[in-house]
Predict the structure.
Amino acid sequence: MSGFVSFVSSGPGDPELLTLKAADRLARADAVLFDDLASGPILARVRPGADLVGVGKRAGRASPSQDHVSRLLVDYARTGARVVRLKSGDAGIFGRLEEEIRALEAAGIAHEVIPGVSAASAAAAAAGIPLTRRETARRVQFVTGHDVTGALPEALNLAALADPGAVTALYMGRRTFADLAARLIAAGLPPQTPALIAEAISTPGQRIARMSVAALAEALADAPPTGAPAMILYGPLAEPARGHRPEGPEAGEGAA
């Protein structure tokens, strides 16, 4: 007997940003294996009686291994259960989706992937700006801010990341941004390039700060960890449209 696994993208945290298909799978699941950033009020959409299993990975904290998470998915599905693997943002962006899909395929277990609102898209929307700008920012690039050790990845394409015509969305880069910014500026990125950091996007604790790349690097260099997930955008960012009202507090130059 074999069950079915739905990889469900939870979006940035606001349950109202779940897709209809995501909400349906949560309501019908027998078991939900969830990331830390995909918990909270989103789990209220799970039917009573379903198993809830936290399998999230957070930097600097004890976390289950990827092999353990994959084994749990297979074991639950083999009981005939309808399993949801709940991932934050969009499951296909820095979510270790491929490893878990391979484990299911090796075990002969059917699955589906349900896309969702990415953290980058949610950050731009919360800030009231587009990710692209006609004739100014025609390219968007996603990059992770740390490797498996938590350090800034060494194999970075600095020429691409310092491209003044691209908007870069930096995931998990709060602790390493000061180092990255120094390398970007050395590679030719103007220090006054616009940047913003959006923390706890779409949640009651949302906070957005706008400043230059150089100012943001200085602000984050010695800043204590907040525990809130952060997305950094930099490049030719648009100013928010007149009348835009962010859901959380917004700060200007020098805040972080």
